[in-house]
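From the pipeline queue, job 12 of 40. The input is one protein chain; the requested action is below.

Action: predict structure.
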Amino acid sequence: MDNMDNIRDYEMLAENLCDIHFLYSRDLSNVFEQHSTRGEEAALFWLSKLESPVSAGELASKLGITSGRIANILSSLDRKKYIERHRSTRDRRQINVALTRAGADHIRSVYENAKENHITLLKKMGDDNAREFIRLMNLAIRTASEITGA
């Protein structure tokens, strides 16, 4: 039996979580989101993880953004020479997107910078707290995915 079956306990914890979310979101975003998780850098990150050309629609789906937004992002990345666009060999109507060497180098640098920021945070938390924090973040993500059906 769960020690927190009492609905009031969950309400108090939810209020605390809301306070953390609303009152400290700026502090948290300074640590966690110095780089956008939905914009150009997120698109470059996903392209680096997928390792093969993907359609704009697939990329938009991974990022949870609209086709209009991904079109703008890809246009900007194209101007910066971070991506290449090619017609699909299977479907000539479809345009596939892939990283260029410059794009791969840029996202690697961004990722390493983010990782250094996370190392600083985790070290300040201490070994046990850092491990527990990561465990709980993973649990929260899995649980949120179950709730949203994602």
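Job complete. The helical segments are 7-23, 25-32, 40-50, 56-63, 67-79, 101-125, 127-148.
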